Amino acid sequence: MAWHSSELTQFASLTWEDVAPTASTPIRGALERVLQRQDGACLSDEERRALAYSEGADLVALLVAADSLRRELVGNIVSYVVNRNMNFTNICFVGCKFCAFSRGPREADTYFHSLEDMGRKAKEAWDLGATEVCIQGGLPRDLPSFYYRDILRAVKSATPRIHIHAFSPMEIVYGVELTGMPLRDYLMMLRDNGLDTLPGTAAEILDDEVRHVLSRNKLSTAQWQEVIRTAHQCGIPSTSTLMYGHMESPDHWVRQLALLRQIQTETGGFTEFVPLGFVHQNTLLFQQGLARSGPTLEEHLKIHALARILLAGSIHNIQVSWVKLNRKLSQLCLQAGANDYGGTLMEENISREAGATAGQYTSPEDFQALILEIGRIPAERNTKYSRMQIKLPVEAASSEWALDAEFA
After folding, report:
1. Cβ pair 87, 350 in contact under 8 A
2. Domains parsed from the chain with CATH numbers
């Protein structure tokens, strides 16, 4: 069976029994072994690379196998968190070529929210039903040494019970430079002042040759790993991420997923993996001819499926970044092995500035509708996935299907 891009979306209606006979022998054997063991550790380096470069019938087999594995490992619930995104400033000296959000200090449209603003925004979010605020920002020069700590204090003072998911590893490195504190001591200070979890962003591709082109002033691969490992050791869980669709190759995907799996084995601190599609339109990286024009359909689907297969037995939650995807594509990625829709966000800016058109906010009701459309069960979660509450509209909750599904 030959598969073309225009037909690729048909994979969601197929079963493993449908596609296994059409896959090549090596791909079929690798996927069958993972499905049987429910653990991606059983694959060789050669097999992981073959899956990452799969095309045609082999790619369809990967997508279907990933969703079958998802069903076995985490069930049919698709979760989301009600949160607000708070970018406290867009002033930044780093100069990442893939970023269209940052501004120089003298540009007309710069902003810097006060500590009072941050507390007020957090309180507004809590009053609207949010359980989390996600706080990141640019890196302005001459930031007060303990400003990240002071943001935490302002937010916790205004909303003591809200979960603070804040500060990328790049911001942590900057905070260490500003204060002169040892990394572990600095992270423990932030934890003691309200930091609950850390975004595993600023990862992009954890390969220093590529990172030098993306942003030569950003933290190194070794620094990113050090921050993440130390945060986990301090009792601060984090997400994990990978940016795809720019100048990287599937080999980079495989190596990064292997590294994330290794860290998870050591620390157990990752709550989820989030593939982040490169939004190219307004970025220097694309405008200077250094990157392709964002991910293809095949790449969007493949990275989510590959993550489910390679991270099986290690990182259980695979999240779609809806701000970088359209409605249909986000649903297709959920059918290719993912199980989480991320956050409602309320005020997303970074992807929007780069040219993303999915909007700044998706309501819980919109998430529920999107999830029900693909026959899955919507559930609101907290940041650490330790609490979930199934959310079904009245008409769905009264159906026999929904009652059965809730207890599946």
Report:
1. yes
2. 22-74 (no CATH), 77-396 (3.20.20.70)
